[in-house]
Amino acid sequence: xxxxxxxxxxxxxxxxxxxxxxxxxxxxxxxxxxxxxxxxxxxxxxxxxxxxxxxxxxxxxxxxxxxxxxxxxxxxxxxxxxxxxxxxxxxxxxxxxxxxxxxxxxxxxxxxxxxxxxxxxxxxxxxxxxxxxxxxxxxxxxxxxxxxxxxxxxxxxxxxxx
Length: 162
Fold this sequence. Notes:
Blueprint: H1 3-21, E1 25-29, H2 35-41, E2 50-55, H3 59-66, H4 70-76, H5 81-93, E3 99-105, E4 120-127, E5 131-137, H6 142-161
Parallel strand pairs: 1-2, 1-3
Antiparallel strand pairs: 3-4, 4-5
Helix pairs in contact: 1-6
């Protein structure tokens, strides 16, 4: 199975899980540029379980659209589990969703900073009660990092829903 098929299969599984539980999803994405939302909306009928997606590539947009604290970004950096958590909870607050997923990272080929090499991605999954975050480092070129990020975001959603 190629990565596109994997992504679409995961998105369909997410949709089935959300629909079975009567839940609505929102996305908040930086390094994936809407890739998670694109995968979700490839699935026919996703309007029943997908509310909206925020593409907040700049720090200012994270603050303006998702109410992520500029001080948090300055202190922790935009690629941090803390900012990923704030993005996910911000997406919940700015939408009609029951749960949200966020991605923020360094897809490359440039952008590495000390302690955060190219391929570093932070994820957030949130509902009204819980926020779960992860930090991973993927390998490959920009496209590969972004694809791996979308796959992991969807896999994490499946775990978070259950």
